[in-house]
């Protein structure tokens, strides 16, 4: 055993009683390293630090590491996170570093929560996770436990990470543990979710990995821990949750298109349909963004051999929805005898959903690009991000009213837009609300709500 390992008794393969292991965990005798200090990683590191008192966070972004070590929280709009990070850093329970391999040396539990993305051609990209696995392997010791929380294509732990960790560390099967412990957390509620909004799923490469991970997370969560058969089952649980959501949002977006032909408020029909328990039709919107829900289908479509036509079609429907929004706008501008080309359009929102500073796969950006392609002059407003890399001029939410716009599209319902006086716009301005977010009952003018119509 390496010198370091003498300092911390193992959790994986421990010969202590369960209660002794639990006490050791909460006393910080199993030092934890969390790889990735982003929207998910920082809240996760915070809850581990609250529970064990000894967490090292690793991030490649030096500014993130510096801010954490200053007790400063870089993740916005997460209730309780700012205070928790400041207190835990001040107490010495949480620190950060850019040196993943060194941090691995000091850890008994390695938690991986770095991005799993897709490439330009929609291939799953697990390269960041494998890069972190190499860092971990440099410091992996017998008795360590690796808990992967990044969403992965099912089979990745078994077929990619386990062989890689064994090969790079020189340790054998059964000398250390690997468990897939998916993060079931939403930005904006991250601390509450990590602490226990939902049951925690754990699945190990072997029974001891599952046991050790279940014990650790049972100390972390106020909810239950659900052990499953193996890592692949746990990976599938997480991906299936996302697939369910993408397909159901696609259904909602497709139903919303019946508004014109049926002459009904489809949203009203959806709300009433959902009054019986077998229906949970989701909300129509401008499309599906973020680096999760629109990415996870490719963790099956471009990973497994088995055809999945429903998943592929749902992706097509959701990806076409931003263009459908622009089609609606163009039709209403042409009804007035004008053309979209040469019109000035303000798009409210750039991020993929309200309150989250994340632009990956954002439908609002697709709307801006489509408007630009069709010759419109595009302004984009967002309280959290700028318009870098987008064919639009950024405008402050408070300055939106100063723009002589032919049309305004509410793409992301940030609360900062609640203050906009929609009646101040000339009646000729076309307003499109893709989120049914405007309280248009009181408005003296037409607003086209996607799924509701004029
Ligand atoms: N964002 C969400 O709502 C949820 C995300 N997840 C999973 O968590 C993953 C991470 O999500 P977020 O935290 O939102 O991503 P994020 O982009 O907010 O944060 C990722 C962090 O990892 C850091 N990083 C990148 N490469 C690294 C490396 N080699 N070593 C150490 N740090 C590195 C980045 O600098 C960044 O700070 C997602 O890809 C997904 O698989 C799971 C549930 C919810
Ligand atoms: C199954 C599930 O609810 N997954 C959540 C999801 O969080 P995420 O931040 O991606 O937001 P989201 O609410 O799913 O929205 C994704 C996209 O879909 C849109 N959206 C969402 C719900 C809906 O009814 N209609 C709709 O158009 C949103 O505006 C956004 O553009 O993905 C997260 C993840 O896995 O990364 C996951 O942890 C979260 O619990």
TrEMBL record:
Record keyword NAD present: yes
Keywords in alphabetical order: NAD, Oxidoreductase, Plasmid
Broad enzyme group: oxidoreductase
Database matches in InterPro entries: 6-PGluconate_DH-like_C_sf, NAD(P)-bd_dom_sf, UDP-Glc/GDP-Man, UDP-Glc/GDP-Man_DH_C, UDP-Glc/GDP-Man_DH_C_sf, UDP-Glc/GDP-Man_DH_dimer, UDP-Glc/GDP-Man_DH_N, UDP_ManNAc/GlcNAc_DH
Pfam families hit by this protein: UDPG_MGDP_dh, UDPG_MGDP_dh_C, UDPG_MGDP_dh_N
Reaction catalyzed: UDP-N-acetyl-alpha-D-mannosamine + 2 NAD(+) + H2O = UDP-N-acetyl-alpha-D-mannosaminouronate + 2 NADH + 3 H(+)
One Gene Ontology term from the biological process aspect of the record: polysaccharide biosynthetic process
Stretches for region Disordered: 1-24
EC number assigned by the record: 1.1.1.336
SUPFAM superfamilies from the UniProt entry: 6-phosphogluconate dehydrogenase C-terminal domain-like, NAD(P)-binding Rossmann-fold domains, UDP-glucose/GDP-mannose dehydrogenase C-terminal domain
GO molecular function: NAD binding; oxidoreductase activity, acting on the CH-CH group of donors, NAD or NADP as acceptor; UDP-N-acetyl-D-mannosamine dehydrogenase activity
Keyword Ligase applies: no
Domain of life from the UniProt record: Archaea
Coiled coil: none
Annotated ranges, domain UDP-glucose/GDP-mannose dehydrogenase C-terminal: 346-440
Basic and acidic residues biased stretches: 15-24
Family of the protein in this entry: Belongs to the UDP-glucose/GDP-mannose dehydrogenase family.
PANTHER family (alphabetical): UDP-N-ACETYL-D-MANNOSAMINE DEHYDROGENASE
Protein's name according to its UniProt entry: UDP-N-acetyl-D-mannosamine dehydrogenase
Organism in which the protein naturally occurs: Halobaculum magnesiiphilum
């Amino acid at each position: 055993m390496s010198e370091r390992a003498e300092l911390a008794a193992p959790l994986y393969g421990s010969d202590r009683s369960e209660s002794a292991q639990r006490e050791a965990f909460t006393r910080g005798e199993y030092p934890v390293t969390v790889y990735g200090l982003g929207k998910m990683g920082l809240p996760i590191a915070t809850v581990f630090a609250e529970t064990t008192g000894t967490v090292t966070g690793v991030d490649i972004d030096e500014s993130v590491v510096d801010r954490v070590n200053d007790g400063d929280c870089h993740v916005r709009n997460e209730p309780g996170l700012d205070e928790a990070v400041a207190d835990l850093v001040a107490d010495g329970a949480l620190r950060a570093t850019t040196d993943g391999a060194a941090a691995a040396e000091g850890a008994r539990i390695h938690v991986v929560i770095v991005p799993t993305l897709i490439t330009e051609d929609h291939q799953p990209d697990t390269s960041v996770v494998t890069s972190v696995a190499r860092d971990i392997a440099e410091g992996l010791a017998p008795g360590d436990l690796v808990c992967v929380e990044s969403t992965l294509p099912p089979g990745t732990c078994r077929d990619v990470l386990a062989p890689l960790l064994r090969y790079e560390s020189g340790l054998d099967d059964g000398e250390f543990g690997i468990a897939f412990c998916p993060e079931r957390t939403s930005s904006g509620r991250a601390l509450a979710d990590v602490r226990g909004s939902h049951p925690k799923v754990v699945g190990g490469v072997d029974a001891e990995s599952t046991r050790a991970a279940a014990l650790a997370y049972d100390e972390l969560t106020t909810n239950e821990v659900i052990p499953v058969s193996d890592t692949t089952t746990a990976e599938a649980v997480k991906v299936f949750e996302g697939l369910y959501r993408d397909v159901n949002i696609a259904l909602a977006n497709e139903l919303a298109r019946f508004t014109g032909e049926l002459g009904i408020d489809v949203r009203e029909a959806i709300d009433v349909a959902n009054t019986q328990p077998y229906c949970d039709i989701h909300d129509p919107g401008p499309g599906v963004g973020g680096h999760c829900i629109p990415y996870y289908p490719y963790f099956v479509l471009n990973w497994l051999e088995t055809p999945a036509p429903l998943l592929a079609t749902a992706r097509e429907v959701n990806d076409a929805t931003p263009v459908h929004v622009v089609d609606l706008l163009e039709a209403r501008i042409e009804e007035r005898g004008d053309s979209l080309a040469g019109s000035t359009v303000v798009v409210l929102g750039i991020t993929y959903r309200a309150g989250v500073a994340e632009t990956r796969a954002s439908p609002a950006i697709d709307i801006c690009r489509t408007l630009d392609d069709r010759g419109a002059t595009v302004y984009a407003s967002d309280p959290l991000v700028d318009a870098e890399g987008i064919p639009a001029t950024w405008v402050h939410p408070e300055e939106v009213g100063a723009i002589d716009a032919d049309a305004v599209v509410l793409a992301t319902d940030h609360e900062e837009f609640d203050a906009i006086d929609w009646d101040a716009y000339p009646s000729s301005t076309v307003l499109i609300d893709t989120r049914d977010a405007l309280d248009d009952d009181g408005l003296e003018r037409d607003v086209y709500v996607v799924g509701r119509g004029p």
